[in-house]
Design goal:
Length: 356
């Protein structure tokens, strides 16, 4: 709302014409006479020209003259004089946009959609995916928990991929995808190695061995070349469960055979072989088949006379042995040699103390 046109005290003791919008150059000098002196003469007034008057402006009411003894109140014009217009004040809209205010009125504030700010946070999904991938890779390398590891690896891969489409930093998702791919290749290689090792052993964690130089038989034995597990009364016993005094039927093996267990029969049943010594060789790196064979042969020969009762040179019996292979040495920690007496004729009962 604006102040209507009229004569107003401009604060300097004079009355100045206000045209409804601003002060003009028309001034009436001197203070107005008190209202109770009716004979006081009015000062000469220079009326504004028609061009300076505001058309259709309402006739203002006469300003109220304060008493003579009252101190004039400081004049606060509705608007400052020309050239004294202060700089427009800025106002801030709720949306964060500023608008200037002119003439005592604030410009309208219109809501404006704020521009999207660059995201600086890290998506939680990406962090969780990266952790799941790392744990999954580690677990997938252990056969016992490999299934759980592969499941975690798949979940982590999916979560890392999703995090790339979310606002925020992308490094957790990218890292998770790279670790998932590299880890999957590593876990697959470890699994293949474990399966390959298992296929070699074929019999769980049982040690396996190769026969040493075994004396040849006459070749007319009915048990030669047949499946040892089909021999009457035979029980297949793994090497780690064999004991001194176990009796074995005649079974001929080739030099390429890798044996996991032996057929054990009651000593009262006709047989040709008998275990008379079991000992462990010195631990360390695999010495090689030939060197290990020399060690096994020397150990078996040294114990021959104490078990049979006569020396090897005069005995009618012979001996052979089973020694660890390179695979059983490295993968099953097999260090055991089994020394076995051999009779060229079937016998019943034990050969211990045979004295021949």
């Amino acid at each position: 709302m604006t102040t209507p046109a009229g004569w107003y005290d401009d604060g300097s003791g004079n009355r100045r014409w206000w045209d409804g919008l601003q002060w003009t150059e028309h001034v009436v000098t001197g203070r107005p006479a008190p209202s109770d002196e009716s004979t006081a003469s009015e000062p000469t007034v220079q009326e504004p020209t028609a061009s300076e008057r505001v058309p259709e402006a309402p006739v203002p009411a006469a300003p109220i003259t304060p008493p003579a003894d009252a101190e004039p109140a400081p004049f606060v014009p509705p608007y400052t004089l020309a050239g004294q217009m202060p700089a427009p004040a800025a106002t801030t809209s709720p949306a964060g946009m500023t608008y200037p205010a002119y003439g005592g009125y604030q410009a309208a504030s219109w809501p404006v959609a704020p521009s999207p700010q660059p995201a600086t946070g890290v998506p939680v999904v990406g962090i969780i995916g990266l952790v799941a991938v790392v744990i999954g890779v580690v677990c997938a390398c252990f056969p016992v928990i490999a299934i759980a590891g592969w499941a975690l690896l798949a979940v982590g891969f999916v979560m890392s991929l999703i995090s790339l489409f979310l606002r925020g930093r992308k490094w957790p998702g990218i890292t998770g995808l790279v670790v998932a791919v590299v880890g999957a290749v590593l876990a697959a290689a470890v699994s293949f190695l474990v399966l390959a090792t298992s296929s070699i052993t074929e019999n769980g964690d049982s040690p396996f061995a190769a026969p040493g130089d075994r004396p040849s038989s006459d070749g007319d034995s009915s048990t030669g070349r047949e499946d040892p597990s089909t021999i009457e009364g035979a029980e297949m016993v793994p090497f780690e469960e064999l004991e001194v005094g176990d009796c074995l039927p005649l079974v001929e093996y080739t030099d390429d055979d890798v044996i996991f267990d032996l057929p054990v029969v009651p000593c009262e049943q006709p047989h040709t072989d008998e275990i008379y010594l079991i000992f462990d060789v010195e631990d360390g790196e695999f010495p090689g088949d030939d060197a290990l064979g020399v060690t096994a042969s020397d150990g078996c020969l040294a114990a021959f006379e104490s078990y049979v009762g006569v020396s090897y040179d005069v005995s009618e019996l012979d001996f052979y042995y089973y020694q660890p292979t390179k695979s059983s040495w490295n993968h099953a920690s097999d260090r055991t040699v089994q020394c076995i007496l051999f009779s060229y004729e079937e016998v019943t009962g034990t050969l211990k103390g045979a004295n021949y």
